[in-house]
């Protein structure tokens, strides 16, 4: 280990328990609940195995009045939930890490769609989300004194169950718009009783939650407070630098650990396009000066130098990681073993967060094994050895081809990777040149760096493969990873792609990637609705061109609501003077005039532009595969046993899909069961009964 990094491996006392090092996997949503307890246990335990000293759950509801359905959330509502969590704790403990549980009451920020209990809130103020999937129409009740006692009682009961399950650290949650936070903020808390008014009164509910939890389990478990400080830091206080300073000072040494964060998912889990590593520091930097208790915070830390600096400068005691621990569960061990150059760094794309919004177990662009540890038996660092002497040819060095090559090579196969372009990286060659997307180059760099060090890999760039070349090489296993191409298809009012727009001045992202420069003014017409249309508009406008962005959706880059990017896409386009037209279909483009119609009303409008860039339908570029299939009769003679498509050449998708596809293909070599995965089922110890707290 680099001696500078030794400080990262010092133990830290958290109340009655001791974290073995400073790597702390903070609570983060995994999309895993009591519905898939084995998937969950393996996912969390893999991080403990990789060296994270503390591994925490995502939000664990204390009572049916904290019900986030249909979003996935875990529970400790009754004793039937204990064994499911015990499985996770035991698995974490096997690797000598501490297990922590984020007990959670959502207050007015949950809609209780399943339990149908009127949500709890300090003053009846609802959380009005802009995302239709998060909106609800049942407004919250105003909590009376009994309600306050009940919520505290549910926290205590859940804390006791957590201790029975084996958790070492128990949380109180006062962040991200949830109930504890709602009491802290005067925007939510208009109470005139002892729980409202002055900051001291507004802190009372959180104080009582901490005190009661400590009374119940504090002998055995560390008691952590997770708190959002962004809004509070902006609010003036009479005697302190801000209300955040006042709140932390009032509670100072009461919790055993401070877990400090931002207020909303887009700022807390900022996408790398818009937020650098360590972006929380200006908000949370003061906490350590106000408390003697250890402080953990996050910032998408992947550089050990940044981590050491956070500790030495007195910002944090424990290095919190959510996304970095998903992208590389073995990050701590790699630092400890002097292998920091092998860290698979998070790219900050927030696909992991989109999994939670989708209501499914976590997916990760960089780590194809995330969520697959138990059900497919995929380990992030281990692969089964090659089961034959087959030679492997992979055509196309984009994310799918690079991942397939790496996994096959790690298994010990002899691998040839052929890429027609001068550089590897596929779509990333162009996309990483767009504003904010350079960090995504880590997908290419991590894999290429590893491949270049391996003796059983031949990497060929500038090597376009045709049918004759593939047959001539005669490798037994061939993967076609030739990617996809953007089409000039338009979009219909039935919300499906329709006929192509041909003619001069019409471009696709592939044209821009090939170096063509559209003449301004430009219309970027986007019905792909992920990042690329917005990023291209931002890039062209940044080069001084006049740009209009139009989409049939309701927002620019509409799907990026799932990845926390959308507010910043709009902000950046606005700053650059890009006109945004939503609910728009592009009908035609002729003689410098684009005609748009409203997708709902059909109302027509025109726009004078010289060029149109269509970011819409993407289809597999699998011509090579099809040509090879036409000559299947020659495969055997050439020594070829199989030819398969992977990544975008099979089904066009996001980077995450390409990497997963490449990974799965190589795991599947000489493995007839590769397509199957295990189905998890809930653990129930007792017959179903009422929730008793
Ligand atoms: P994916 O996301 O599935 O990896 P990409 O489009 O990012 O797909 O990458 C596909 C890669 O395949 C590109 O780098 C492209 O240059 C390369 N490629 C396409 N056709 C050939 C070919 N015939 N021979 C070698 N490389 C090819
Ligand atoms: Fe990081 Fe993206 Fe993986 Fe999330 S999905 S952990 S942001 S690389």
UniProtKB/TrEMBL annotation:
Keyword Repeat: no
Top-level taxon of origin: Bacteria
Domain NADH:flavin oxidoreductase/NADH oxidase N-terminal: 8-342
Coiled-coil zones: none
Pfam families: FAD_oxidored, Oxidored_FMN
Cofactor (UniProt): FMN; [4Fe-4S] cluster
Keyword Flavoprotein: yes
Keywords linked to the UniProt accession: Flavoprotein, FMN, Iron, Iron-sulfur, Metal-binding, Oxidoreductase
Stated family: In the N-terminal section; belongs to the NADH:flavin oxidoreductase/NADH oxidase family.
Protein's recorded name: FAD-dependent oxidoreductase
Source species: Candidatus Seongchinamella marina
């Amino acid at each position: 280990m680099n001696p500078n990094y030794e400080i990262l491996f010092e133990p830290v006392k958290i109340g009655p328990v001791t974290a073995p090092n400073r790597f702390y996997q903070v609570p983060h949503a995994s999309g895993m609940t009591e519905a898939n307890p084995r998937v969950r246990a393996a996912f969390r335990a893999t991080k403990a195995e990789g060296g994270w000293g503390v591994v925490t759950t995502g939000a664990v509801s204390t009572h049916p009045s904290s019900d986030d359905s249909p979003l996935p959330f875990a529970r400790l509502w009754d004793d039937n939930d204990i064994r499911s969590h015990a499985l996770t704790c035991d698995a974490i403990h096997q690797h000598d890490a501490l297990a922590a549980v984020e007990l959670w009451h959502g207050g007015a920020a949950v809609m209780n769609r399943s339990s149908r209990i009127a949500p709890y809130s300090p003053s009846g103020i609802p959380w009005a989300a802009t995302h239709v999937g998060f909106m609800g129409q049942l407004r919250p009740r105003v909590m009376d004194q009994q309600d306050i006692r009940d919520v505290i009682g549910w926290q205590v009961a859940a804390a006791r169950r957590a201790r029975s399950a084996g958790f070492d650290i128990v949380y109180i949650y006062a962040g991200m718009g949830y109930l504890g936070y709602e009491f802290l903020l005067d925007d939510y808390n208009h109470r005139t009783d002892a729980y409202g008014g002055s900051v001291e009164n507004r802190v009372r509910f959180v104080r009582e939650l901490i005190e009661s939890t400590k009374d119940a389990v504090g002998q055995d478990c560390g008691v952590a407070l997770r708190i959002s400080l962004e809004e509070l830091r902006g609010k003036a206080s009479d005697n302190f630098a801000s209300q955040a300073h006042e709140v932390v000072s009032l509670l100072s040494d009461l919790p055993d650990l401070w877990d400090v964060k931002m207020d909303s998912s887009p700022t807390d889990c900022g996408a790398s396009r818009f937020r650098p590593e360590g972006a929380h520091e200006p908000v949370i930097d003061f906490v350590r000066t106000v408390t003697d208790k250890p402080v953990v915070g996050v910032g998408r830390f992947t550089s050990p130098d940044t981590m050491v600096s956070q500790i030495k400068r007195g910002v944090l005691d424990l290095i919190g990681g959510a996304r970095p621990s998903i992208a590389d569960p073995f990050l701590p061990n790699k630092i400890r073993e002097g292998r920091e150059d092998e860290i698979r760094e998070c790219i900050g794309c927030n696909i992991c967060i989109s999994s939670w919004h989708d209501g499914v177990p976590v997916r990760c662009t960089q780590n194809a094994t995330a969520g697959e540890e138990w059900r497919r038996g995929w380990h992030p660092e281990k692969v089964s050895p090659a089961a034959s002497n087959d030679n492997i040819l992979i055509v196309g060095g984009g994310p799918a081809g690079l991942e397939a090559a790496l996994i096959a090579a790690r298994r010990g196969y002899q691998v040839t990777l052929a890429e027609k372009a001068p550089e590897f990286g596929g779509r990333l060659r162009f996309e990483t040149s767009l504003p904010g997307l350079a960090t995504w180059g880590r997908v290419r760099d991590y894999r290429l760096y590893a491949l270049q060090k391996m003796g059983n890999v031949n990497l060929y760039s500038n090597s376009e493969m045709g049918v004759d070349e593939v047959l001539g090489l005669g490798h037994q296993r061939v993967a076609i990873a030739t990617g996809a191409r953007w089409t000039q298809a338009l979009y219909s009012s039935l919300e499906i792609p329709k006929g192509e727009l041909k003619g001069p001045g019409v471009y696709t992202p592939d044209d821009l990637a090939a170096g063509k420069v559209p003449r301004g003014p430009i219309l970027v017409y986007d019905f792909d609705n992920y990042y690329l249309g917005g990023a291209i508009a931002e890039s062209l406008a940044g080069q001084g061109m006049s740009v209009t962005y139009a989409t049939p959706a309701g927002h620019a880059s509409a799907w990026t609501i799932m990845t926390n990017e959308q507010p910043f896409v709009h902000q950046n386009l606005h700053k650059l003077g890009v006109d945004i037209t939503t609910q728009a279909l592009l009908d035609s483009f002729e003689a410098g005039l684009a005609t748009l119609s409203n997708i709902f009303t059909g109302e027509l409008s025109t726009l004078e532009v010289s060029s149109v860039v269509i970011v819409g339908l993407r289809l597999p570029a699998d011509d090579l595969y099809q040509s090879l299939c036409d000559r299947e009769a020659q495969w055997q003679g050439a020594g070829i046993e199989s030819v398969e498509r992977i990544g975008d050449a099979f089904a066009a998708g996001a980077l995450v899909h390409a990497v997963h596809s490449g990974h799965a293909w190589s795991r599947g070599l000489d493995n007839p069961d590769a397509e199957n995965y295990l189905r998890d089922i809930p653990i129930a110890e007792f017959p179903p009964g009422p929730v008793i707290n």
